[in-house]
Amino acid sequence: MSMDQCNYSVTFEDYTKNHYIKFFKKKYPGRAWEITQEAIKDMCERIDNLRSRDILDKICFVDDETIYKLDFTVSGTHVSAKNSGNRCIVAVNEDTRSVRILLVYHKTHIVGSNETTWWKKQIGI
């Protein structure tokens, strides 16, 4: 099997593009966010490689997709992904080999005391 067959297609949902990504672009000017966003895409293209790492947590199943929380770090910050407070919520469809990035946020964006309840409300699950 070639590497191309192992890869998943990745899309950033419109909600993601129009909300918290703006925060990251503003907080990390220059190319830092651009590099980070490309790194997130690259990680998600090879999401099978992350399943055994502590930066990817399986959350639930919705219809034909598995929802995961992915920790990431911003390029040049020298903070671990787990300690950065930066998260992505991704939906993985094994049949179509696709990943939809539903939400990108920092833990400071959370309103209330339950992170999972907050992001489920944000994306309508």
What report would you give on this structure?
Helices cover 35% and strands 29% of the residues. The longest helix has 14 residues, at 32-45. The protein contains six helices and five strands; from the N terminus they run H-E-H-H-H-E-E-H-E-E-H. The protein is α+β, with helices and mostly antiparallel strands and 125 residues long. The radius of gyration is 14 Å and the shape is globular. It has one domain (3-123): RelE-like (YaeB-like fold, 2-Layer Sandwich), CATH 3.30.2310. The chain has helices at 3-6, 14-18, 20-27, 32-45, 81-84, 115-123, and strands at 9-12, 56-62, 65-72, 86-93, 98-106.
Q: Please identify which CATH superfamily we are dealing with.
A: RelE-like
User: What is the fold named in CATH at topology level?
Assistant: YaeB-like fold
Structural Rg: 14 Å
| Portion of residues within helices | 25-40%
The CATH first-level class comes to Alpha Beta
- Report the span from N to C terminus: 35 Å
Average pLDDT reading: 86
Number of domains: 1
Strand percentage lies at 25-35%
Give the low-pLDDT segments.
1-5
Number of helices: 6
Strand order of the largest sheet: 1-5-4-3-2
How many beta-strand runs? 5
Q: Which geometry do the CA atoms define?
A: globular
Proper CATH architecture: 2-Layer Sandwich
Structural class by sheet pairing and helices: alpha+beta
Main β-sheet, in a few words?
Answer: 5 strands, mixed
Order of secondary-structure elements: HEHHHEEHEEH
